[in-house]
């Protein structure tokens, strides 16, 4: 059972707290079971005989037992909360680390909304079930077993009422659990749907407003919200039905005890105090079973959540970096050797037998039409995707033989969609090298043509950056990401269409500064504008996932028809 296995695995480090809960719950339960016996003695030996001293002595003992029960219950709740909250924390941490370790292709099969739900709402459900289990399910079996034994000792003739009442409650539990399990599975899926719509609308709010699609998107959210509401109402209807049924069983059991017990009191088979004790034991047993019913109502949802969490935790990465550190590359020469790569489920590979080399101290540009595989090739070089065939080497060392830490120190990637993290400009620039000095940050900003707007900000390097860099323009975001890569000082720079938001003049200045700053590093640039890579030492032309040309700008204009078509199409657009 996934829920049990997951709970035991992550609760095991806190076995001391769990053991304390069991001991304290045992003490509290035994104290609660002792109280009806004392109450029966007060009635039969104190009230009926008029023995006031006995009533005071026994009443005082009852008070001491009550205080002990309360103290044990409070302490048990503390240790139970501590163990369950710590377990939830560890589970969330393990989930986060697993997601952080999985390749992008593996994460794509779930999607971001459901991953967020699983690491928050789903873990919360498992954590809450563990808390309720420690607080109630430990005492429930003790209360049931000990209560039945004591009730039978008080009057075995009425014990059949216990078996009938408990059996009816268990039938109710079984029916409710069978109804709730598929509903909770659907509920978690509906929560994923609501999260997905909200995230998409927040991220794409500018596009929504630009096309005046607010009403349409509101309708999409209303549909997702209504679907979640419908399944929640269905679950709520069962919960609403549960408590009246349980109270009906409790009241019917009480009436039955009084009905049949009164006859036994009249015949002298049982005393009034003993009958009162039996009734209290029966109610304690049924209340314990009722708490078990409440827990059982939570179990189906927690089971579904545990399965969803375990699906991610148990995922085998389609690709992972080397576990042990290898020899660092001697240089920055990048060799792409017969690389073939296709996305899962795709009809054909995106890259087909791609082979080329990028030399240190040179700029190697990659151009091609949309969908030719340029960005995918960059991801393969950066070891984000694992090719089905072929290999990528840096300095003669295969990239899959390097640990993630080694690779990040050798290769600096500026992605097609620049992303900044919440914090400051300085914290973002130090992302790849935390020990970089302020002077090094300003030098990287100068090369990236970003020092001007950073100096213009009130706080300079300490200026706050919003999540995703939404409080700076697209061009500023690109330049800050370029500066971040420069601060890391890698041997290989990968620019995946990283200059698209820059005007021609800024682009030209940045490239001249890059040429002086990168020195002997290998620079690989994916570009859309041919005019910006005309001076590259080597240009790789791609078409339909294949390398169809390689050379300088002038060489390709003379010998490569695909490159010539790209140049002519861009020139015609510029003329138009």
Give a quick rundown of the structure.
The protein has 576 residues and is α/β, with parallel strands linked by helices. It is built from 19 helices and twelve strands.
| CATH H level, superfamily name of the largest domain | ABC transporter type 1, transmembrane domain
| Molecular shape | elongated
The radius of gyration computed from the alpha-carbon positions, rounded to a whole number of angstroms, is: 35 Å
Helical coverage, percent range: 55-70%
Integer count of domains: 2
Number of helices: 19
Number of strands: 12
Q: Quote the CATH topology of the largest domain.
A: ABC transporter transmembrane region fold
Structural class: alpha/beta
Residues in β-strands, percent:
5-15%
Please name the CATH architecture of the largest domain: Up-down Bundle
Strand order of the largest sheet: 6-9-10-3-11-12
Q: What is the CA–CA distance across the termini?
A: 67 Å
- CATH class membership of the largest domain: Mainly Alpha
Average pLDDT reading: 83
Largest sheet, strands/sense/barrel: 6 strands, mixed
Query: Residue ranges: pLDDT <50 for 5 or more in a row?
Result: none
Supply database-style keywords.
4-stranded antiparallel β-sheet; alpha/beta; 6-stranded mixed β-sheet; ABC transporter transmembrane region fold; 2 domains; 576 residues; single chain
Account of the 3D structure:
- With 576 residues, this protein is an alpha/beta fold.
- The protein has 19 helices and 12 strands.
Write the layout of secondary structure elements.
Layout: H1 2-11, H2 15-47, H3 52-101, H4 104-108, H5 112-137, H6 139-154, H7 159-203, H8 205-210, H9 214-266, H10 272-313, E1 334-341, E2 351-358, E3 363-368, H11 374-381, E4 389-394, E5 397-398, H12 404-410, E6 411-414, E7 423-424, H13 425-429, H14 438-447, H15 451-456, E8 464-465, H16 474-488, E9 492-496, H17 504-517, E10 522-526, E11 538-543, E12 546-551, H18 553-559, H19 561-575
Parallel strand pairs: 3-10, 3-11, 6-9, 9-10
Antiparallel strand pairs: 1-2, 1-4, 4-5, 7-8, 11-12
Helix pairs in contact: 2-3, 2-6, 2-10, 3-5, 5-7, 5-10, 6-10, 7-9, 7-10, 9-10, 14-16, 18-19
């Amino acid at each position: 059972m996934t829920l049990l296995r997951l709970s035991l695995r992550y609760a095991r480090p806190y076995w001391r707290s769990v053991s304390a809960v069991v001991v304290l719950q045992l003490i509290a339960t035994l104290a609660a079971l002792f109280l009806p016996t004392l109450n029966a003695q007060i009635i039969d030996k104190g009230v009926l005989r008029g023995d006031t001293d006995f009533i005071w002595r026994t009443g005082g003992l009852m008070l001491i037992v009550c205080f002990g029960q309360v103290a044990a219950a409070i302490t048990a709740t503390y240790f139970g909360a501590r163990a369950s909250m710590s377990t939830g924390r560890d589970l969330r941490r393990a989930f986060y680390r697993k997601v952080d370790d999985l390749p992008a292709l593996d994460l794509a099969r779930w999607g971001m909304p459901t991953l967020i739900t699983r690491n928050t709402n789903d873990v919360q459900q498992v954590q809450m079930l563990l808390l309720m289990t420690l607080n109630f399910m430990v005492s429930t079996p003790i209360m049931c077993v000990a209560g039945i034994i004591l009730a039978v000792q008080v009057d075995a003739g009425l014990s059949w009422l216990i078996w009938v009442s408990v059996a009816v409650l268990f039938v109710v539990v079984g029916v409710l659990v069978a109804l709730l399990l598929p509903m909770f599975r659907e509920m978690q899926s509906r929560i994923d749907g609501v999260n997905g719509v909200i995230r998409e609308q927040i991220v794409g709010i500018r596009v929504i407003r630009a096309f005046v699609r607010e009403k349409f998107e509101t309708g999409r959210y209303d549909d997702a919200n209504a679907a979640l509401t419908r399944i929640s109402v269905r679950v709520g209807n069962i919960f609403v039905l549960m408590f009246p049924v349980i109270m009906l069983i409790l009241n019917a059991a009480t009436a039955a005890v009084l009905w049949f017990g009164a006859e036994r009191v009249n015949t002298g088979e049982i005393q009034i105090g003993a009958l009162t004790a039996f009734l209290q034991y029966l109610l304690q047993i049924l209340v314990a079973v009722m708490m078990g019913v409440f827990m059982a109502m939570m179990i189906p949802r927690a089971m579904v959540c545990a399965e969803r969490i375990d699906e991610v935790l148990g995922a085998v990465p389609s690709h992972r970096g080397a576990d042990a550190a290898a020899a660092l590359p001697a240089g920055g020469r990048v060799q792409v050797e017969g690389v073939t790569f296709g996305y899962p489920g795709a009809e054909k590979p995106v890259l087909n037998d791609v082979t080329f080399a990028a030399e240190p101290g040179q700029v190697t540009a990659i151009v091609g039409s949309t969908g030719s595989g340029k960005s995918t090739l960059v991801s393969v070089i950066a070891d984000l995707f694992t090719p089905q065939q072929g290999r990528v080497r840096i300095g003669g060392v295969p990239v899959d033989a390097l640990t993630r830490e080694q690779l990040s120190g050798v290769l600096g990637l500026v992605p097609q969609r620049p992303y900044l993290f919440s914090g400051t400009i300085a914290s973002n620039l130090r992302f790849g090298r935390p020990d970089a000095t302020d002077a090094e940050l300003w030098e990287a900003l100068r090369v990236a043509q970003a020092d001007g707007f950073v100096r213009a900000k009130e706080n300079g390097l300490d200026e706050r950056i919003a999540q995703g860099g939404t409080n700076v323009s697209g061009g500023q975001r690109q330049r800050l990401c370029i500066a971040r890569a420069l601060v890391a000082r890698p041997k290989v720079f990968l620019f995946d269409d990283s200059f698209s938001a820059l005007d021609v003049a800024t682009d030209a200045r940045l490239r001249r500064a890059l040429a002086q700053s990168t020195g002997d590093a290998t620079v690989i640039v994916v570009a859309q504008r041919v005019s910006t890579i005309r001076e590259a030492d080597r240009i790789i032309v791609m078409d339909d996932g294949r390398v169809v040309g390689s050379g300088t700008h002038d060489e390709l204009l003379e010998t490569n028809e695909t490159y010539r078509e790209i140049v002519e199409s861009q020139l015609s657009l510029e003329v138009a």
